[in-house]
Structure formats: structure tokens, C-alpha cells
Amino acid sequence: QVQLVISGGGLVQAGGSLRLSCAASGRTLSTYAVGWFRQASGKEHEFVAAVLSGGTTYSAGSVKGRFAISRDNANHGVYLQMNSLKPEDTAIYYCAASRSGAQPTTWSSYDYWGQGTQVTVSS
After folding, report:
1. Would residue 54 be called left, alpha or beta, if left means φ above 0 and alpha means ψ between -120 and 50 degrees?
2. Which of 59, 8, 11, 61 minimizes the C-alpha distance to 36?
3. Which of 18, 58, 99, 103 has the largest CB neighbor count within 10 A?
């Protein structure tokens, strides 16, 4: 069982930045694909970004050029740097881990999910 712990999030003005961190309690995420998803109120989970164990990254078109996913295997963490935030980025953000890395943009393809953190961007 992999327990994912998310830190970061909060309230920021439009144009600001936030950094989310995702770590696995007691183990490394280096062998897992890790994805970030978000869920705005009343909407389905939306893919944001993912990084495979080998380092290949994927990003949703809506965040390309503004958000960056990275992993630090030495510190066992995966990060989502969010810049130029917009009010439409407001959502609960989740990280998820996958053993296989198959279909990294699909919520249901992951094996473990973190508890979520609220990101609110004010206009």
C-alpha cells in the first residue's frame, strides 16, 4: 500500500504561483508514474500533468507553459510548480501513483491517490 501525502496549495491571487508536493509515506516514488489531477466544484477529475518513472512528462493543454511537473528521486518527491495562475485553475488538486505508468492521463489508471489539497485563485 502506498500512502501519498500532498503539501502546498492555498489561496493566491491571479498571476501568482504555488508549488504542490507529493510524497509517499515511508517509501520512494522513483519507480512509479505520478500524475496530478484536479477537480473543480461540480466537475469531473481533470488531468493536469504526469511524469513517468523514466522522466517523460505529460501536461494538459490548459496548463502548458504555466505548470511544470518534476520529480526529485533523492528526496522521494514529485512537484507541481504552478505559475501564472488563473481563477479557472481553482480546484482540489490530487496526486496519484501508478505502478505501470500506462495511460498516465487517465484518473482511473492509477493505483493510489492522495487526499487532495485546495487551490483557490482569486481574481
Report:
1. alpha
2. 59
3. 18
Can you tell me the distance from the alpha carbon of 123 to that of 111, in angstroms, rounded to the nearest whole number?
A: 35
Query: How far, in Å, CA of 1 to CA of 34, rounded?
Result: 15
List pLDDT tens digits, range 3-41.
Answer: 999 999 999 999 999 999 999 988 889 999 999 999 999
DSSP string, 90-113: -EEEEEEEESS--STT-GGG-SEE
Q: Which are the contacts of 80, defined by CB distance < 8 A and separation ≥ 6?
A: 8, 19, 20, 22, 36, 48, 49, 67, 68, 69, 93, 95
How far are the Cα atoms of 53, 92, 111 from residue 8, in angstroms, in the given order? 23, 11, 22
For 57, other C-beta atoms within 10 Å of its C-beta total 13
The torsion defined by the Cα of 80, 40, 116 and 21, in degrees rounded to 10, comes to 10
Point out which residues pair with 76 in neighbouring strands: none
